[in-house]
């Protein structure tokens, strides 16, 4: 029997990667709507969409996302839009009989000074990183929304918390994007113009974990496909989210040096210590996912090379949204 699978946020980096992999499966009918066709912040429109489409499963990859600059500049938009989208999609899914849903969160849900690597149990144990607190609060609410609907209504709604993602269809806005696309654009432009140096935000000392979006899509589909007993074996009824990452991190300086080599920029690296570093380290504890039988397969260098090749070949199709 064919399944009707709705991918919210299908035009984004993660959503488009999920669709690429779902298309390889038999017996799956993929349902999508663009932002112009369906405003996920509009409750009535979302309710009408679910009521008329007989959805079996939902991959909730829709979100307003951005880097440090965007989070600092648009905090109200980040918390409002993400809360509205989560509430509307999860509630409409329940009210129309959707039994399985996976919501994508973010590693920023964990406290700024969480133990490293960060286990799922670190959630709500201390203060969040101030630069992205509104976004993090919205994502924490999404986790608790799924947990609450599971407890009260007996549905099977799961949450996956990815580390920093990058890859095909990322947002390459020069200031509002995440670190890898912003850095890739900067190095690429510097190479084209024969600049002598590239300036990187911060001191270069913070440590970050990065995962290619194809790995994230594969992990999300894996989590959706687990039977409930297997998933429940590594989670708790009141703490049902699961981390998704590589288990390996590097400094921002090391990332910049790898990026310089991949792009082929031969100039100098300069670090602007007046710009914010964010959290000192963010590495996820991915032991639960590994216990279930999944681990990442794309190395950072290979993933950056694949992304840069795609970037070079798709200059007219790059996403450069404001946030």
Distinct helical segment count: 11
Question: What does the main sheet amount to?
Answer: 6 strands, parallel
The order of strands across the largest sheet is 2-1-3-4-5-10
Basic shape: globular
| Amino-to-carboxy terminus distance | 40 Å
β content, as a range? 15-25%
Task: Give the name of the CATH superfamily of the domain at 3-170 and 210-248 and 283-300.
Answer: NAD(P)-binding Rossmann-like Domain
- CATH fold name of the domain at 3-170 and 210-248 and 283-300: Rossmann fold
* Radius of gyration based on Cα positions: 19 Å
Which regions contain 5 or more consecutive residues with pLDDT less than 50? Answer: none
- Determine the mean pLDDT: 93
Number of strands: 13
CATH class category name of the domain at 3-170 and 210-248 and 283-300: Alpha Beta
The string of secondary-structure elements, in order, is EHEHEHHEHEEHEEEHHEEHEEHH
CATH architecture of the domain at 3-170 and 210-248 and 283-300: 3-Layer(aba) Sandwich
């Amino acid at each position: 029997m064919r399944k009707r699978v709705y991918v919210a946020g299908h035009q984004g980096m993660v959503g488009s990667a999920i669709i690429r992999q779902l298309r390889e499966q038999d017996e799956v009918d993929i349902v999508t709507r663009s932002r112009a066709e369906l405003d996920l912040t509009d409750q009535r429109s979302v309710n009408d969409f679910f009521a008329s489409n007989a959805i079996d499963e939902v991959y909730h990859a829709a979100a307003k996302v951005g880097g440090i600059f965007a989070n600092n500049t648009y905090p109200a938009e980040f918390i409002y839009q993400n809360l509205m989208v989560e509430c509307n999609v999860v509630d409409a899914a329940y009210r129309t009989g959707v039994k399985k849903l996976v919501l994508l969160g973010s590693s920023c849900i964990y406290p700024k000074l969480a133990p490293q690597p960060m286990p799922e149990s670190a959630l709500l144990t201390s203060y969040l990183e101030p630069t992205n607190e509104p976004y993090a609060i919205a994502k924490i609410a999404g986790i608790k929304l799924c947990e609450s609907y599971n407890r009260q209504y007996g549905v099977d709604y799961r949450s996956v918390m990815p580390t920093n993602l990058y890859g095909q269809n990322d947002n390459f806005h020069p200031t509002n994007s995440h670190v890898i696309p912003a850095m890739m654009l900067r190095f690429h432009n510097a190479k084209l113009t024969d600049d002598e140096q590239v300036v990187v935000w911060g001191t270069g000392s913070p440590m970050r974990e990065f995962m290619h979006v194809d790995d994230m899509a594969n992990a999300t589909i894996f989590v959706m496909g687990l039977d409930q007993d297997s998933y429940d074996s590594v989670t708790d009824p009141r703490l049902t989210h699961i981390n998704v990452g590589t288990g390996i991190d590097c400094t921002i300086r090391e990332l910049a040096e790898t990026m310089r080599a991949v792009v082929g920029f031969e100039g100098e690296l300069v670090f602007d210590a007046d710009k914010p570093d964010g959290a000192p380290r963010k590495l996820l504890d991915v032991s639960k996912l590994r216990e279930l039988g999944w681990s990442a397969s794309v190395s950072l260098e290979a993933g950056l090379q694949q992304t840069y090749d795609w970037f070079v070949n798709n200059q007219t199709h790059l996403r450069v949204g404001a946030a």
